Amino acid sequence: MSIHRSQTILLTLSATVLGLGGFLGLAGLSSASPAAQEKKAAPVSGSYQVDAVHSAVIFRIKHIETSLSFGRFNAISGDLVVDEKSPEKSSVKITIEMDSVDTANQKRNDHLKSPDFFDAVQFPTATFVSKSVKKAGDKKLSVTGDLELHGVTKPLTLELENTGFSDTKMGVRIGYYTVFTVKRSDYGVGAMSGALGDEVQVTVSLEATQTDSKR
Predict the structure, then answer these.
(1) Nearest-5° Cα angle at 73, 70 to 75
(2) In this structure, are residues 138 and 146 in contact, taking their beta carbons and an 8 Å threshold?
(3) Are residues 75 and 105 in the same domain?
(4) For 95-148, what is each residue's pLDDT tens digit?
């Protein structure tokens, strides 16, 4: 291939990429999510309800000391009370439907719902209810409460990070994120201890809509 022809091809490719980039950039701006075009909202105190569609509860556990296996719960609900001026007046209540466990394998899902693990028929939900809230740094709260799982209730402290606020056509919204670890044996879920680790890391991302908005 001649140098002249190579240069021509490179110039053509560059023009195509630049043109596509410009198109995508303009498209991104024009469709720039209606939410992004709304004015940025300041933190809003009030009562909020968890939006299950935009929230997630994901867990991971060690499998035969080899890999990390992941799963999630598809049904989550809850209520938050946010007090920006007096964080100690804030509160959190989150409920997870154990029957909604999803590991991308139906046979494994059914086993997890069985009495060997969650026993979802006898213990249909896991619930976290806060007992105290305090500021723990910029955009962070330390929330201490009780986690009830598999019929066992134990204290648990979460560090909730505020991931943002928005005021859009979907309402006034707030987001929080936390990662914590529990031992499943502490809650009587000890089956297959030789194949599965005891520690379970849980990631929770919440998006909640204000229910007492005056808009």
Answers:
(1) 165
(2) no
(3) yes
(4) 999 999 999 999 999 999 999 999 999 999 999 999 999 999 999 999 999 999
